[in-house]
């Protein structure tokens, strides 16, 4: 195993001890003889190593050298390290005998990056090639929307014990020839060093290398695809549903939690190229579902008309049903289909429950299956069983993850439908502690109709925006419950508080007619 990066005084040595970096950024490249000397000295710190031992340690590198030449090599190395024989920081002399390494190692913080460019083979002293690699790092940073840390460390080598803070690495091999730079690149998982995807690129050694920008985008797409698309590996009991995997992939590449926009273009292009792939169809349906969930909450998105909303639901229905036959042997895809069919509320709840049961019986993805089983049970009115399954899924989810937050919201919705307000309040407190940014909108959705205080944020909402909020809550949550009193309970708190501010006519007509007793005295 190679030596990990280590600091001695003002020098941080690379893992292979071929180079070091000073605190002022200056680079130091060591010859093979110098490296061999440092290896021997640092392996036995604070111990005398004789000239004869150092000479023998050079092996084939010694050539015609004698013990007297060792003094010359050590003095040259000492000079390059910035050391002083009278007040040594690195190498002390024991006259007439040999040398002692007196520097103590200082722990070096592990390298941390979303993408680390390295190792780079074949770079040598070619400044033009080094400039190309540096520009590539800049283009990759732009392709990742400037939201992720990209490091270029050509001398870096993978070390399992120090790789936990590296999400991805890009290994590059170079061959300059006739003014061109041939590049073989391999995107790898940073923590395991497992290859994800190879690339081949040839660019001019001189110039701006416009090809690098296109490659950087392809690399970002590959990172997204690896995170978002099912890879055929068997799922683990703790795995997220595809919906969350898709969301997390977009956030991973862009840093933007409004994930559907960033996923849409990639998924549409992939689905157009492979229209018969059921996984792409299901993922596209899930992304269209996310568009309906996230879009209306974005201040930059114009409100959807009823026709536009139905059009997206039509698309979801077509994609999900079209993929069903080919997805029958893929439990995670079945769970995705069940999710969107349950959401659009077009009479598919029993089918969604059947597909969920099929997926559960055939899969090890317990957390994802528990989530969907709980959702279908809650929609069918079996709230107690649903809450129990949500709790089992929460036990499997990583604490504080998007999956955990998603489960709490679903569980809270089921409790809200059952009018179990005390438990809803506990859930809101737990969710706010995990995700403080959600406190505002979560508080509005889970408002108690008995609360005497209307939140200031709600009091400032214009009447038309209030109508849209109620319609949104009905479409995304309330209507999925089969029992009318569950639907009423979901809408009741928000409706009461909006009616206090704007009067009963803030309630959209279809909802007033559907829940006449609830909203008759809303003002």
Automatic annotation (TrEMBL):
The keyword Ribonucleoprotein does not apply. GO terms for biological process: phosphorelay signal transduction system; regulation of DNA-templated transcription. Residues 3-103 form the OmpR/PhoB-type domain. Residues 3-103 bind DNA. This is Regulatory protein. Keywords: DNA-binding, TPR repeat. It comes from the Bacteria. SMART domains: Trans_reg_C. Pfam families: Trans_reg_C. It comes from Bordetella bronchiseptica (strain ATCC BAA-588 / NCTC 13252 / RB50) (Alcaligenes bronchisepticus).
């Amino acid at each position: 195993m190679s030596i990990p990066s280590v600091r001695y005084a003002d020098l941080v040595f690379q893992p292979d001890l071929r180079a070091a970096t000073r605190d002022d950024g200056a680079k130091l490249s060591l010859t093979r003889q110098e490296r061999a000397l440092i290896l021997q000295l640092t392996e036995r710190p604070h111990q005398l190593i004789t000239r004869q031992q150092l000479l023998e340690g050079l092996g084939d590198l010694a050539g015609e050298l004698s013990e007297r030449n060792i003094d010359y090599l050590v003095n040259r190395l000492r000079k390059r390290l910035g050391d002083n024989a009278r007040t040594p920081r690195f190498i002390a002399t024991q006259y007439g005998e040999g040398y002692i390494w007196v520097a103590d190692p200082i722990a070096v913080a592990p390298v941390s990056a979303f993408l680390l460019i390295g190792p780079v083979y074949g770079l040598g002293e070619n400044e033009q090639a080094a400039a190309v690699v540096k520009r590539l790092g800049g283009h990759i940073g732009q392709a990742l929307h400037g939201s992720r840390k990209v490091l270029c460390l050509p001398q870096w080598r993978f070390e399992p014990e120090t790789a936990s803070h590296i999400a991805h690495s890009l290994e590059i091999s170079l061959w300059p020839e006739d003014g061109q730079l041939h590049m073989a690149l391999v995107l790898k998982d940073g923590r395991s060093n497992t290859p994800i995807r190879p690339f081949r690129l040839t660019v001019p050694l001189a110039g701006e290398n416009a090809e690098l920008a296109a490659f950087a985008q392809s690399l970002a797409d590959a990172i997204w695809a690896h995170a978002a698309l099912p890879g055929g590996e068997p799922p683990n009991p703790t795995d997220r549903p595809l919906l969350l995997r898709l969301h997390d992939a977009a956030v991973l590449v862009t840093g933007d939690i409004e994930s559907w926009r960033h996923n849409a273009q990639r998924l549409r292009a992939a689905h157009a190229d492979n229209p018969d792939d059921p996984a792409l169809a299901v993922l596209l349906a899930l992304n269209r579902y996310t568009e309906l969930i996230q879009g209306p909450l974005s201040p930059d998105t114009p409100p959807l008309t009823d026709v536009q909303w139905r059009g997206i639901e039509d698309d979801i229905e077509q994609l999900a049903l079209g993929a069903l036959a080919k997805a029958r042997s893929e439990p995670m895809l079945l769970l995705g289909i069940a999710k969107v069919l349950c959401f659009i509320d077009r009479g598919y709840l029993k089918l969604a429950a059947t597909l969920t049961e099929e997926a559960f019986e055939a899969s090890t993805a317990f957390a994802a299956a528990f989530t969907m089983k709980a959702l279908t049970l809650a929609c069918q009115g079996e709230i107690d069983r649903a809450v129990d399954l949500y709790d089992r899924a929460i036990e499997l989810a990583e604490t504080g993850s998007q999956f955990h937050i998603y489960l709490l919201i679903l569980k809270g919705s089921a409790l809200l439908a059952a009018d179990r307000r005390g438990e809803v309040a506990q859930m809101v407190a737990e969710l706010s502690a995990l995700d403080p940014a959600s406190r505002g909108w979560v508080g509005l959705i889970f408002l108690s109709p008995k609360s005497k205080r209307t939140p200031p944020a709600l009091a400032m909402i214009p009447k038309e925006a209030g109508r849209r909020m109620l319609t949104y809550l009905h479409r995304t949550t309330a209507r999925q419950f089969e029992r009318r009193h569950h639907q009423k309970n979901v809408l009741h708190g928000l409706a009461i508080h909006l009616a206090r501010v704007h009067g009963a006519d803030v309630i959209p007509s279809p909802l007033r007619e559907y829940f006449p007793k609830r909203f008759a005295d809303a003002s």
